[in-house]
User: What shape does this take?
Amino acid sequence: MKVNILLLPLILLGSPTLHAGNLTEDNVNKAMAVIEEVVAAYGGEKRLSTMNTITIRNETINIATGQSLKPEPPWDKNPSSGISAVDFKNKIFVTRSQGLAVGFEFNNGTIINGEQSFQLDYRAGTVAKIAKPDFDTSSGPFMRVTPALLIRTLKERSQNAYYLGETTIDGQMYDVIGFSMAVGPAISLYFERESRLLRRSERVLANFGLVEYHFNDYEDIDHIPFNRNFALYLNGDLNIERHNLSTNVNTDIEALTQVEENLTELAAIVPDELSRQEIAEGVYLIGGSGTYAMFVEMEDYIVAVGGAAGIAERIALLREILPAKPVEYGVITHHHFDHILGVTAYEEEGATVIASRAHRKIIEDKAKNAENLKLKLVRKKHVLKDSSRRLQIIDIGPTAHTEHLLVAYLPEEGIVFEADHFSMPQVGPVPPAVPSTKTFAKALKKHRIEATTFLSAHSPRVGARQDLEEALDKKLWTEDR
Ligand SMILES: [Zn+2]
Assistant: This one.
């Protein structure tokens, strides 16, 4: 793909005799002229403004970059399907999706409707009230993948639109307009000069990079061009492919805003602040905001288990009670990008990183100084022991989530720490087991891991053997009605 950006002649000249006012005025006028043509191409202002509800059903493929069974490409493709609907007059947004992703099954819904806003889990059959619903933030992602809505927003907010320039992509000329929505970073819109249709948009997200949306196929619905699909690229790599199965304009969305009966109502989820729990003597679970690590006190040193976000802060909290003992080992459970963040923290501690032999490359790539990284690679099992206790690091893979998975097992205490396979919800009942939980339970049997206490990388809540059994026995709420 060949991309040529021709800068605005005005900017190229950059003459000091040119008044800034002229530059601004010319730019605004140019943007307005393009927006007028674009609005006409999308059915005209009147048609766009009479759109009140939009309902779109989709089928989607998510490409699991860095989150696949294997640590390298080709990445797994995770299918899902869903429906999204918006009602602008009443500021209602509803979205539901169900699908599969590396051993996880989900079937969730969100209803944003003022006081009647809810988060729903149809597998578990639970509903939680959303205390502070935010229509703009919740509906933003849907707006960004629906050009007709984006164009209407652009027209409404044309006061803060600006002309970025013209460019050629694959022999086609484009005019590029920049603008910002109510929430989030500025967005650049690429309008094909001939048809004035939006073919591409871009945003740059901090800590994430360049996000591109491509719209290659349109159909007319009520004389407004709607996209049949979109593709999302993250830093140039295909990340999401969505096919819109149906699009309905101005149909009643009332039914979608109703919460089904017989759902279990959950207590409000409170912010989960960084905390330290002593699980057994010298065994700690430290974490907050969805990521946790286990720390095991040995006679002369500490073993840290888990590589999710915030390891340095978790070590700092441990130091409050164990100031003198060094963190000698840091165990990385598996290769997924959110579980290798701890590598650099362990590196800084001077700890030896323990990881699956299969994950060597990804760990070394993550390290700041791979040459000096102390790395202990585990093929099947590695035991750390001294006169005080015995800690087993066992590869229980493959599971439905990853080919290799290190768990930490304290046989005397009956404690196991794992990531992404069996996590207690922060509040409410244990949900029915997903495939990764089922394969985890089988692997425990196979490796004769007789744990009674389950610590997880993503929950502050400790699970018992009985919770695991309950999850395995539980039927889906959707089947159980
Ligand atoms: Zn994972």
Observations:
- Residues 5-16 have pLDDT under 50 and may be disordered.
- Residues 275-480 form a domain with the Metallo-beta-lactamase; Chain A fold (CATH 3.60.15.10).
- Residues 334, 336, 339, 401-402, 420 surround zinc ion (CB under 6 Å).
